[in-house]
Amino acid sequence: MRGKLVVGNWKMNGGLAANAALLSELVAGWKPVAGRELAVCVPYPYLPQVQGALAGTPIAWGAQDVSEHDAGAYTGEVSARMLVEVGCRYAIVGHSERRQYFGDTDAIVAAKARAALMAGITPIACVGETLDERERRVTETVVLRQLVAILAMVGSDVSRLVIAYEPVWAIGTGRTASPAEAQAVHATLRARLAKAGAEDVPLLYGGSVKADNAAALFAMADIDGGLIGGASLKAAEFLAIARA
Predict the structure, then answer these.
(1) Which of 1, 41, 53, 163 is a good FRET partner for 14, with 20 to 30 A between their CA atoms?
(2) 202 with 163: CB under 8 angstroms?
(3) Tens digits of pLDDT across the chain (244 residues)
(4) Residue 237 catalytic?
(5) Which of 33, 6, 146 minimizes the C-alpha distance to 90?
(6) CB 223 within 8 A of CB 182
(7) How far is CA 149 from CA 73, 96, 188, 210, in A?
(8) What stretches of 106-178 show up as alpha helix (H) in DSSP?
(9) Residue in 95, 97, 129, 186 annotated catalytic
(10) Dihedrals φ, ψ of 90, to 5°?
(11) 95 in active site
(12) What is the rounded distance in angstroms from the CA atom of residue 166 to the CA atom of residue 206?
C-alpha cells in the first residue's frame, strides 16, 4: 500500500521569527501516523534553522530547487551535496515557476532530478500544463513529455522519485482541478510509470489545495498526497491538509 505524503512549499516567503513560530506549531501539532509523512521545502537561507527545529521530529525538510551541477563556477547555485549537509531529504525540481520564470527546460529538470538522486536526496519532480494547453486538450501530451524526459535521465533510479502534478492554471489562483480531473492525469502518469517498473512512485497533486478540498482529492485512487503552496504557511491549515 502506498502511503500519503504532504509537502509544504514555502516559495519565497518566511523570516526567522515567523519561521520559528510556524515550525513550533507544526512540531507540536503533528503526531506520527502510520503511512503518512509530512515535510516542508523552504528557501535556502532557512535550511539550517529548519534543520535545528525539525531534527529528531517526524517532520522532514527539503529545498525548493537544486543545481544540476555538483560543484564549480556556478554563482548563485546550490548543489545537492550542500543540501545533504543540512539534512535535506527532498528537493523540488521543475516547479512551474522555475520553468516559467527561470527557463528550466525539460532537460534541465531531468538533470536536476538526477543530481539529487546521486546525492541521496529524493527529487519531487513537477509536471503540469498551462490553461492554454488544457483548453487545447494536450494535457496528456504535455505531462507525459515532461515525465519521459525525467525517466530517460534517471534510468533505474526511477523508483526513488516523487512526482507532483501541478496544473499551472491552478497554482495560486484559487482554482483547483476537480478530484476527477486530477485523478485522470494521475492515472495517466501512473500507467507510464508502471511501464518503467515504478508504479508505486508517489504521485502528489498541487494547485490551490486547502483543508476543505484535500480529503476529496486524496481519496482518489492515484493521488498519494499533495504539494502545498500558500496553505503550508498557516500551521492549522497545513496540519488539517496533512491529516485529510
Answers:
(1) 163
(2) yes
(3) 589 999 999 999 999 999 999 999 999 999 988 999 999 999 999 999 999 999 999 999 999 999 999 999 999 999 999 999 999 999 999 999 999 999 999 999 999 999 999 999 999 999 999 989 999 999 999 999 999 999 999 999 999 999 999 999 887 777 778 999 999 999 999 999 999 999 999 999 998 899 999 999 999 999 999 999 999 999 999 999 999 9
(4) no
(5) 6
(6) yes
(7) 26, 15, 16, 30
(8) 106-118, 131-135, 139-154
(9) 95
(10) -125, 160
(11) yes
(12) 5
Cell of 111: 538533470
The rounded distance, in Å, linking the Cα atoms of 6 and 232 is: 10
Q: Check 37, 129, 166, 237 and give the catalytic one.
A: 166
Spatial CA neighbour of 228 closest among 63, 3, 9: 9
Q: State how far the Cα of 217 lies from the Cα of 185, in Å rounded to an integer.
A: 12
CA dist., res. 179 & res. 101, Å (int): 28
Whether this prediction's pTM lies above 0.70 is answered by yes
Structure-block grid coordinates of residue 223: 493521488
